[in-house]
Amino acid sequence: MKTAPQDLVSIPLIKTLLVQIESAQHYQFDLGDDIMACSPDQASSRPPSEADDLFLIVSGTVRLLTHNEGLQKTVSVACLGPGEAFGCDRTFCGHPLPYWAKAAASCQLVRLPNRAVERALSQWPLVLSHLQRQTQRRSQLAFFKQYTPLGALPSKVLSGRLLPQLVEQPLQAGSTLGQYPLIADEYLWLRHGCLLNPAAPNASSQVGDGWLYAPRQGNWTCQTSGLLYRLALHTPELNAIKQLL
Hints:
The protein is α+β, with helices and mostly antiparallel strands. Helices cover about 25% and strands about 25% of the residues. The longest helix has 23 residues, at about 125-145.
């Protein structure tokens, strides 16, 4: 439902973008309304007009949700408030994220077309960098919430304890794990790509798989380019997390 904006310029991020973008649309949502309605397995096929636009929250709260297959339930990825943004994921991290959005209270949003956002952000690199960092963190949260048993933990715990310790390791197609600075007994998750274990060629690692790394796995081959999440478990902050791995 469209509505007139209320005091939009009081929020710095919204003020910065609205100065550049005249085609913004303003919406009012009530508690429980779908804002971006989509199941995770449909994320890559969302209509571009919905998947790629940027939503800025003026007032109220929006909850981002995903489905955890292992837990067989819907879990919360994040609860966002005024001044925060979501959407435009392909622009900020290269791929759509597996969440949908619902109004967690009455809220007012501004929706900005993707092309207009890209043009505006080319002139505001600091705002672009801020949104990229937000989206990267949200991408990490969505991964753990959707694919792993850690999805049972509150996002606040994951954001405060796990994500600051997380290291991203890009993988090149045709390389082996032994070519990367991996450490014995650190925990790995496959975020993107496919790994082949020569000892079990019919049981290659898939996105979402997690395991303790051992040097004998150094001959595992990257079938495609990809990304590993690395986590050193020997830190006090992670004691509450270890039991779920």
